[in-house]
Write a structure and sequence with these properties.
Elements lengths: L1 H12 L3 H10 L3 H8 L6 H9 L8 H10 L4 H13 L26 H33 L7 H19 L5 H17 L4 H20 L27 H37 L4 H20 L5 H13 L7 H18 L1
Amino acid sequence: MAESDATRRDSLAGLFPVLRQVRSRARLTQRQIAQATGAGGKHGHKLIARLEAGNVQNPSLKLVLDYLCACKATTHDLTEFLDGYLGSQLPIPSRPRRGPHRKGTEPARGLPPKSEDAATLAMRKEAAWWKLRRAAEEVLHQELTELGLKPMGEERKTAALFGGKVLRSLYRTRSSRPALRERKLKRSQEWATRNGLPEEVRRRLAEAMDSLFAAMEAGGQLELLPPVDEARHLMLLKPSKRFVSDEAMCHNDFVMRQYERFRVQEAARKPVIEAAVNMLRSEGLTKQQLGNYVCFITFFLNVAETTDPKSAARDRRLEEILEGHRAPHRDEAILRRLAELVLTLRDRRN
């Protein structure tokens, strides 16, 4: 029995360092977590430190969930942690049953109260539901992107709503007659038609949701899905925080593309800027005089990146810059040589 308990503790010990990562991302201290959860009383931060180190024997499910809630954990944090935590053999602390017992017998141990057992089962069911929703959103995002629907556009938003309706129809009719499922799916199709969704989009999304649901069901990943009435209760966070929607994925894709474009642009600009600064230094300018010209490097780079070489538009932009920034403390000849160098180097890199 001692060996079995040690094995169980080892299986849980690897989970709790994840808590420290979640807390660090939320920029909270152990004392702040203790205050938010109300755990451990005056010395709650010591309990939190032991919990993160995996040194709390049989930690309660409520303590772990309160910790994650205080850190505003994401869908990934919650579902992945719950998969490991609830999949272990110690989801609930073992306690001696209080009250009188017969002489010569030991009190029963390891029998959790029924309310905690029901709560654990509910949490496992809801974790399974959110995993399904997350997988569905990822498939939906991929299909909508392949269909070429404009990100953040109204048509794409309607298509995403339709995909969700199909998934809910499949979920609600899991244990029902096929005829009921057909009627619900038909109503979803009629809703999409009324909202102007093209037939090809409706067909692709319906097939994708059906394939995903069937594959997860065949793999046993939906065995713990709760009944419809139980799924209305949210675990910890609002539905919008439980999974990443297609709209959020589109926004993330846009941000990543902008970042990649900026990174490529900066990599192309760096050698040009270095060469331009070296040219200015070779003119014998002092450090103070150098500051009067450095800002023009960015001006000329913007011209090079937005106009064609030897075009009238480029010549006009350059003259506007030189005319608009003419001053006694700047040598126009140096500015023109600087412009020629920057434009030539940037055009070569293009």
